[in-house]
From TrEMBL:
Spans of repeat TPR: 400-433, 503-536
Protein name: Uncharacterized protein
UniProt keyword annotation of Nuclease present: no
SMART domains recorded: TPR
Top-level taxon in the UniProt lineage: Bacteria
InterPro entries with a match to the protein in the record: TPR-like_helical_dom_sf (IPR011990), TPR_rpt (IPR019734)
PROSITE patterns, alphabetized: TPR
Keyword Repeat tagged: no
Source lineage: Bacteria, Pseudomonadati, Pseudomonadota, Alphaproteobacteria, Rhodobacterales
Pfam families: TPR_16
Length: 568
């Protein structure tokens, strides 16, 4: 999906990339206090639309407040609205010539418009994002002007940066050389000792080798670097190389692409080390400069999801076209974002469309099946899983989860013969798999059949995962159903300790306590179970147990009581 740039975070700190953006704490002396406070809350909530709206309103009464200006600019960048920032960036730059956020906005707009003279002039007059970023953007601007000698000198000037950045200049230099057709020089630079073998560096080297009619070497490089586990982009590259095609160099196609790659490399290096909201600024700039690059859109979308901005994440996923190799991955991400936003019908529609546009993609059918199963549409879920299973015949060990999930769908739909067959098939593919053993064993317990086999399965699952609350509950419940109440107490208490807020486990513990004569504790557990929102039919049964006790409820259900009923 995305990849790290291979440069150390400590180096980013050293060159001054870390800035406390979004702290939003100036005194609102002149600003609209209500709008100011609302903007501050929006900052904490990571609600970029609200931040921009309230900060803009507050600027009406305090138009030269630098932090308000930073908030408006960073909010628009976070949303991908670069057309809205020019005026604000100009005002902020006039107030604070060295302001980093103003430079981010202005340099992005200049680079996007391929105004390379403007980029060079802005950097020469002191606009700055960071030492390393400034140097690389400056160099790419000279590439855009056709001044390779100045560009190469700037790329070479970063070799003494240290702390992981000594290869940043040479890497960008190699891309620039390849862009202008000097493939031999680019390959020599990329092949230098110590050059980090990042994803993009390996792809660049493979494309350059192909341009030099050395496809066999390129294919070996790709296989050695990525192995059998790859993705759509790598698979497409392998296929082209294997077919003897002359693969074009596309890692960068212009100086603007080169600048985009710089911002993406920085965002990748920042990822996980600094606040996601700050990393997003670099990712969005990369995406703005190269909107058709899927990796950039995927990275922005992932950051937005982590920031709970699901609508914006969905929009970022939408930027990837249906013909892009990353489209299926983006669509699955989009569906997940819709689900997180509570738009279940939209999630299902997106997944259905994916299964139509890419019917050969088993992940699409699996995701659709999972979504349908979550919505308790079990028959439809089983159909989706069946398509995925049919795409993977004969089944391999890796397909055991498919049979497991289809088995669950069949069991919930009440088609037990098919459910049992699938669950046993899952065990045939992955013997002693604890989840499958537990599910099949517990199902037998619920049906009060194959009890010895069921307990054997559950004991085996429990031995493999002694700290799994569900499996421990199954073990205890099996002992209870077999009438071995005293033996059931300890595992059921452990299950409740492992899953203290689970309604079913607390209900079960109450039943076990009742069976061994600990009636006060049983009623306490049933009350706890009710507090954890059980299903309505279960809640009704628990309330009845609180009224008359477990044994009378069992009698009403035509079942044997745990103890002889006392009618006196």
């Amino acid at each position: 999906m995305t990849h790290r740039a291979g440069f150390s975070l400590s180096a980013l700190t050293a060159v001054g990339l870390i800035l406390g953006v979004g702290l939003f704490n100036p005194s609102p002396v002149s600003a609209d206090a209500g709008a100011y406070l609302a903007a501050r809350q929006a900052t904490m909530d990571r609600s970029f639309r609200d931040l921009v709206g309230y900060a803009t309103r507050s600027l009406a009464s305090d138009p030269q407040n630098p932090v308000l200006l930073e908030s408006v600019i960073s909010g628009h960048i976070s949303m991908g609205n670069f057309d809205q920032i020019k005026g604000y960036a100009t005002v902020l730059r006039n107030l604070e010539p060295g302001n980093q956020i103003a430079a981010m906005g202005n340099l992005t707009l200049l680079a996007r418009d391929e105004d390379y003279d403007g980029v060079i002039a802005a950097l020469d007059e002191g606009q700055s994002i960071s030492t390393v970023v400034d140097g690389m953007v400056h160099a790419w601007a000279f590439v855009g002007k056709g001044d390779m000698s100045s560009a190469l000198a700037l790329f070479d000037s970063t070799v003494d940066a240290g702390q992981g950045f000594e290869f940043f200049g040479p890497y960008n230099k190699a891309l620039a050389l390849a862009l202008v057709g000097d493939y031999e020089g680019a390959l020599e630079t990329l092949s230098s000792v110590g050059m980090p073998a990042t994803r993009s560096a390996v792809i660049a080297q493979a494309q350059i080798l192909s341009q030099l009619e050395r496809n066999d070497e390129a294919l070996t490089l790709i296989n050695d670097s990525f192995g059998p586990a790859s993705d759509a982009q790598i698979d497409a590259l392998k296929a082209a190389l294997s077919a003897g095609e002359n693969v074009p160099f596309t890692v960068v196609r212009s100086a603007r692409d080169g600048m985009a790659d710089v911002f993406f490399a920085v965002a990748s290096a920042l990822d996980g080390g600094l606040d996601d909201g700050y990393t997003l600024l670099y990712a969005r700039i990369a995406q703005e400069l190269r909107p058709d690059e899927a990796n950039y859109a995927l990275f922005s979308a992932a950051l937005l999801e982590r920031l709970d901005n699901y609508d914006l994440a969905t929009t970022a996923f939408d930027a990837i076209g249906v013909d892009d190799p990353a489209y299926p991955m983006a669509t699955l991400g989009r569906a997940e974002a819709l689900r997180a936003a509570g738009k279940d019908d939209a999630e299902l529609e997106v997944l259905r469309q994916l299964t139509k546009s890419h019917p050969e993609l088993d992940d699409g059918h699996i995701a659709l099946g999972d979504a349908l199963r979550r919505h308790e549409r079990y028959a439809e879920a089983a159909e989706a899983y069946t398509v995925a299973i049919d795409l993977n015949r004969p089944p391999s060990r890796a397909q055991w989860p498919l049979y497991f999930t289809r088995g669950i769908a069949y069991e919930r739909e009440g088609v037990w013969d098919k459910a049992e067959a699938d669950l046993r098939q899952a065990l045939a593919l992955e013997p002693d798999q604890p989840q499958v053993l537990n599910y099949l064993g517990y199902s037998f317990l619920e049906m009060k059949t194959n009890l010895d086999e069921a307990m054997g399965m559950i004991r085996k699952a429990s031995a493999a995962r002694p700290n799994d609350g569900y499996i421990t509950d199954s073990l205890a419940w099996g002992l209870y159903l077999l009438g071995r109440y005293d033996e059931a107490v300890d595992p059921m208490e452990r299950a409740a300790a492992l899953m203290p807020v689970d309604a079913v486990v607390n209900d079960h513990l109450g039943d076990v306590y009742w069976a061994v004569g600990r009636e006060r504790e049983a009623r306490f557990q049933w009350e706890r179970a009710l507090s954890f929102d059980p299903e309505e039919d279960e809640a009704k049964r628990i309330r009845r147990k609180l009224e008359v006790g477990l044994d009378r409820v069992l009698g009403e259900e035509g079942l044997a009581p745990t103890r002889p009923l006392d009618d006196g």
